[in-house]
Design a protein that fits this description.
By secondary structure, the protein is mainly α. Helix 1 packs antiparallel against helix 2, helix 2 runs antiparallel to helix 3 and helix 2 packs parallel to helix 9. The C terminus is likely disordered.
Length: 253
Amino acid sequence: MEECAENIIICMRQIPLLLKENQSVSNKLKTTRYIARLHLQYCSILSQLGQHEEALEHAKYGVKYTHIAIKQLKDIIKPYTMKTNTAIIERTAKELLPIIKMLNSKLLNEKEKPKKHTVDFDIRTLFGFTGGEVLNKVNIGSIMQLTPLDVIDLFMKCNDLYELTRESILEKITLLVVSYFCVSTEKRFLSQKIKNKHTDFEFFHSHALKIACTFLPGECPLVSHVYMTYQKHYSILQQPIVLYKLIISLKIL
């Protein structure tokens, strides 16, 4: 684990060197995405080593760079919506802009004072009753577990059209959910060690859940994971909500 941590530190020192002033926004976004992922992976390793204070700092860096990536994505999309062309990229940009604006509106301001709020998710969406494509690869492990990058992937130039794909958008949403979830987890660990050290960990977890339920399909493993852990740690009754009765009624029918 210590060796993994050392190698991630080396990676974090090297990847920013790939950022150049003359790079396109889409290439800068690609690098920003890698940096966010590295911080979250480093957070995971530090957490397993019991270094929760430092893990929390890197979880916050994960949030920071994910915010930057989402704002960069908006900068890519917006100019295409001003054009009157009917090319695929212009049409796609116009469809995506409202979604990206909504996503930007849900980014937590660093100076915002955390407050407790209810998780007003739609239970049908959460458990996949609305159908849709099953995204089995969208889980917390796809972000937190170490995965190698080959040379082609690292130096491949991105273009605006790639950033407007469904896969690219989902990756950024996943990064956002996981980064808030990591902040919550590390704050919760620290609060167990030092009473009243952090009191806003539920706020970050519930915000991660709200974003997951808003933008990801209900059958997505990441949604299930964030929901189940929220219920485990914060539910007063710690019982499945309504779903149990619904399953019974379906069996009777």
